[in-house]
Automatic annotation (TrEMBL), chains A, B:
SUPFAM superfamilies for the chain: UDP-Glycosyltransferase/glycogen phosphorylase
Cellular component GO terms held in the UniProt record: endoplasmic reticulum membrane
Catalytic activity: glucuronate acceptor + UDP-alpha-D-glucuronate = acceptor beta-D-glucuronoside + UDP + H(+)
Membrane-spanning parts: 492-515
The name this protein goes by in its record: UDP-glucuronosyltransferase
Alphabetized Pfam families for the sequence: UDPGT
EC number(s) recorded for this UniProt protein: 2.4.1.17
Main location: endoplasmic reticulum
Topology of the protein relative to the lipid bilayer: Single-pass membrane protein
Gene Ontology MF annotations: glucuronosyltransferase activity
Classification via PROSITE patterns: UDPGT
Keywords: Endoplasmic reticulum, Glycoprotein, Glycosyltransferase, Membrane, Signal, Transferase, Transmembrane, Transmembrane helix
Subcellular locations according to the entry: Endoplasmic reticulum membrane; Membrane
Length: 528, 528
């Protein structure tokens, strides 16, 4: 009996050993994580957590003043001082939140957006400088002997630090304004069918739309130069090398792209790009008893989930009144992430919450519609759980995102500026009662969820790959060694045209010479 | 006790049910497999077998006269009569086998190769016609209600049948001559860093090489037109539609490409391309007792594995003598797939075999070098097991393949025409005794084998995906709707240049008019 017991213990021990070897890498790597604030962090956190759970040693590097980035038991956090104070950040954020509900003249919109972006990047460059020139901290980072930097190249600090420390970088992003991600990774984006940011086109364009998209792609090149001038300057100065920011991020080992082709239009990709769209969507957990009761009470009509994202949870009183009025006119119950002023007559079917278990609510069988601002996180949760959407884009890439979703026929777009209770009710009725929306959404959802590997596993795999092989050089295209003229073979075409010209001219000269000689001879003969 | 027994039976039953549900799809699909002869079939067989083992109903459609395609217990085989007899095929094959050892004038080489290919495709078109116009068989195929066609678009019959039956197609291939695969899938291949077939360049080219590659990419376009004229004609005639073969294969749902970037140079890919390089490599099985004894007897020197592929297993007596002589000069033991004339003085360290367990031998710890013709199957088995190579390209893509391997520094290329015992011994000594070859090969092998999913699982997954969703339309780029001019935005550029010209002319005219008026006025004033 004793023998059997020992065998059992030994067997279990061996099994545990085998399991732990399988579940964890042989030796945990050392990863420096440099996230970007806001929703960017919310999805990167999924990967950082996944890596920590696999036994890697994670150091999260964040500015002292931040909004959503919090520390965790799973990884170490190192903060660095920045010039902006918590109060200044709050004021700036509040101004921004109010700004999204103010209508700007249509033509000015793009100028204002670029202005906002320049202001934002300026602030970020300042923050980055505080870090880069913080010698003790940089020395400490150097001594940590990291294996890689996991960062979002939306902001310059991560890629610059990776270059400075000579570490391979894994990027985690949805995209970079003006298509810098595609430029830097040498990924072809033919303007004939790859719509540019804010162009309002799909991948199927008319001649006029193609002209517009072509011009936009040219404008983007100029915009890139302007927008990233401060990044270029900082990088060159700090690294003491004549490098553009585009060249620096072009050195990234792996690009983990937070989309797939249920959302994005099919387009060429590079070998070091890995699609992890939907990484933030997970199997829905149980709701709290109170919320579950409210949801269940909706009966056959079901619920509507309403959130304007991680940064915007309030709105002007008059705007909120429109929503309250609309919700009083529908039979569904509404769960709304709202921290604004609460009126006296909140309809009974509306539950206001400071924080919304959005993923779990969307995954609930009672979820009928999702009112969203069109951030990619919300959109992917909607697609993942198959819930049709009413979309109210506020800023940044959201206008483009909702356009992509709307062209799939799984959502309706409304303008936050022009919205009325009637248009909102109409839109909700359409996506809830016109069964074609649900059908198309279920089909899209089935395609999105049908993938050989879960996005998180894929992201973890390729991050560990970079650790194991100290990069992914075998996936780096030789296009990085060519300049623009060479890449497009314009020097070759020029040379060939020159040769053709020379040959044509020489032939022409020869013919002319022969002709003249012949003429002379016949003239001579005539004269003779 | 009885109760416990029943519970055990019930539990086991449930477990078995769960296991079978997990291992098999809910309902097996119906797959029509149309392979291409020779080594093409050897790797496609791996997927066909994998699909059959997953419970799918596979019908293998093959010409009555064939070389390597054999029936299997796992899938049904349907043959169709073709004009060429077994004897004619054997004679043709023998002629081909002898031809590869004859040297053709360097300049004529490409002409001869294209000639061979045209002859081969002509024969195949004839065979395909026999099938397409075989009404009873075609009716039978229609009634089978297949879910998809799995085929190699190297030959036209599979894609044409898929179109005729209105079925989605999954392609399984290494590539199609003159880059038709990339053209048809709308995959960008910038000639500035994607070397063309037979160009002899790598992805890093000098200016002269880039000129050469650019010209080659133009020549390819013309070659494509010539080589596939018979395919175009057959497809248009049979389908009664104005379609080119390129347009037909452009409709493929998924392209399973039999390479990865340990072998291929990094380049753009399309979303519906799945890389399954190394699908033919498997964990090496035990050798037969006789072979194992021979291998073990090699001692510390190890063995050399020698095969010239599935189609060439003999060679002229004089050529073979060179190899026998070389092998008598090395300490390693040699296992050679050889069916040619056997001389009296075969060295003791040489074992001649009609069939070689190539994968198992390469996976044996004693394997020191691999003499190969440079087919992708052999190359991937070599990379997979990490064995340095001596390569003797014979025909087709082999010249290009060995060039790719050689640039990685894991193999040496010799010419089958110029080979001598000394050069062969030198080459073997280099790859065996210069440890840098083994080191680089081990690194390459580690990268190749480090992948999130096994190639076979990936191929099965995407084939089943196409069955589940009746295609993969969400991965189809809108570029398919554009013509060449539109794709490259040349119409847009032309239009913009025209507008610029008009504006310039108008401005010039206006200025000239103003100038003239001013001049007249001042002249008038002077006159006054």
């Amino acid at each position: 009996m004793l023998k059997k017991g020992w065998l059992w213990v030994l067997g279990s021990g061996l099994l545990l050993l085998w399991l732990s070897a399988w579940l964890r890498p042989a030796q945990g790597g050392r990863v420096l994580v440099m996230p970007v604030e806001g929703s960017h962090w919310l999805s990167m956190k999924v990967l950082a957590t996944g890596l920590a759970q696999r036994g890697h040693n994670i150091l999260l590097l964040v500015p002292e003043t931040n909004i959503l980035i919090e520390s965790s038991e799973l990884f170490r956090t190192e903060t660095f001082p920045v010039k902006i104070s918590k109060e200044e950040l709050s004021t700036s954020l509040k101004g921004f939140q109010e700004g999204v509900f103010k209508r700007s003249p249509a033509l000015m919109d793009i100028v204002i957006q670029v202005g906002h972006l320049l202001n934002f990047t300026g602030m970020q460059v300042e923050g980055c400088e505080s870090l880069l020139y913080n010698k003790p901290l940089m020395q400490k980072l150097k001594e940590e002997n990291f294996d890689l930097v996991l960062t979002d190249p939306f902001l310059p600090c991560g890629p610059i630090i990776a270059t400075a420390l000579g570490l391979p970088a894994v990027y985690f992003l949805r995209g970079i304004p003006c298509g810098l991600d595609m430029l830097a990774s040498q990924c072809p984006s033919p303007p004939s069918y790859v719509p540019r940011f804010q162009s309002g086109s799909t991948d199927k364009m008319t001649f006029v739309e193609r002209i517009q998209n072509f011009v936009m792609s040219g404008v983007e090149l100029v915009l890139c130069r302007i927008m990233y001038a401060s990044f270029d300057e900082l990088a060159s100065r700090y690294l003491d090398a004549d490098l553009t920011y585009q060249e620096i991020i072009g050195r990234g080992a792996i690009w983990l792209l937070r989309y797939d082709f249920t959302f994005e239009y099919p387009r060429p990709l590079m070998p070091n790009m890995v699609l992890i769209g939907g990484i933030n969507c997970r199997k829905s957990a149980e709701l709290s008893a109170e919320v579950e009761e409210f949801v269940k009470g909706s009966g056959e009509h079901g619920i509507v989930v309403f959130s304007l994202g991680s940064l915007v949870s309030s709105m002007p009183k008059e705007k909120a009144a429109i929503f309250f009025k609309a919700f009083s006119m529908i039979p569904q119950r509404v769960l709304w992430r709202y921290t604004g002023e609460i009126p006296d007559d909140v309809p009974e079917n509306v539950k206001l919450m400071k924080w919304l278990p959005q993923n779990d609510l969307l995954g609930h069988p009672k979820a009928k519609a999702f009112i969203t601002h069109g951030g990619t996180h919300g959109i992917y949760e909607g697609i993942c759980h198959g819930v049709p959407m009413v979309m109210l884009p506020l800023f940044g890439d959201q206008g483009d995102n909702v356009h992509r979703v709307a062209t799939r026929g799984v959502g309706v777009v409304l303008s936050i500026h022009d919205i009325t209770a009637e248009t909102l009710v109409d839109a909700l009725n359409t996506v809830i009662n016109d069964s074609s929306y649900k059908q198309r959404m279920e089909k899209l959802s089935a395609i999105h969820n049908d993938r050989p590997m879960q996005p998180l596993d894929l992201a973890v795999y390729w991050t560990e790959f970079v650790m194991r092989h100290k990069g992914a050089d075998h996936l780096r295209p030789a296009a990085h060694d060519l300049n623009w003229l060479q890449y497009h073979s314009l020097d070759v075409i020029g040379f060939l045209l020159f040769i053709v010209l020379i040959i044509t001219l020489a032939t022409f000269k020869c013919c002319a010479l022969c002709w003249r000689r012949c003429c002379r001879k016949s003239q001579k003969r005539k004269e003779d």
